[in-house]
Design brief:
The protein is of the alpha+beta class and 280 residues long. It is built from six helices and 16 strands. A hairpin with a 2-residue loop joins strand 10 and strand 11.
Length: 280
Amino acid sequence: MTTLPVPTLDHVVVNVRDRLDEGLETYRRLGFTLTPRGYHTLGSMNHLAIFGTEYLELIAAPAGEPRRAGILDAPIGLNGLVFGTEDSTSVYEALSAAGVPIEPPNEFSRPVELPGGGRRDAVFRTVRLKPDATDVGRLYFCHHFTRDLVWRDAWRHHPNGTIGVIRAVIAADDPAPLAALFARMFGGDAVRRDGDGHTLLLGLSRFDIVTPATLAATFGAAAPDGAGRATFMAALTLRTRSLDQAASALAAGGIDARREAGRIVIPATATFGATLEFRE
């Protein structure tokens, strides 16, 4: 009997295409502490906002980089939801046996400068769903071999008080196919019906698959434009230590944010295409 992986959240990815300088400045103004620029051996570049057990990644590639056409051709915005694993080989074998369209593990790295001088390579192995598995965006697993080079305490302190990801919100004209894919990946008990949509449970986080009507009712004009896509990654809910702290950091950055009872909402137009919601 195949043992399916238990879903955990490793990180979320905001695609800024070839505009990483602008993305860095925007997310600093949003109150995030960003890591120094990383250069992957695959040809992409990134900055990370490290939280307690997961992180947010700004991903980009140099204009015309042929190895990363998937970044340069994809819409700007929330573009990747990444599961964690400590055994990428077993994930590949289990999902292949379950009939999930999955690609073999792929290992790569990026150099990291050390606080006392010198450098080491942060090494990763990813297991990606094939592009035709879903039209929602990039879904994959990430296996860290050098976690100490990623989760440094100095990088976990953010002016906006963010300590974790509560949820990612996916908009879908029909939530059922993506929910069924998640059930094949993780088992039916990992997915539950929620109103007119579905929710995938991931430890202390979750992925909510909602209809466009529910997305609009939740975020109003702050929701991203789906640009005609039937399914797309739309929003992130982040846990902050204090809404007052988040509000102060956003005001200092000149960010147009809407504060309501129990939350702060930032429109996708101010964040490179991903609606951000802060809650305590």
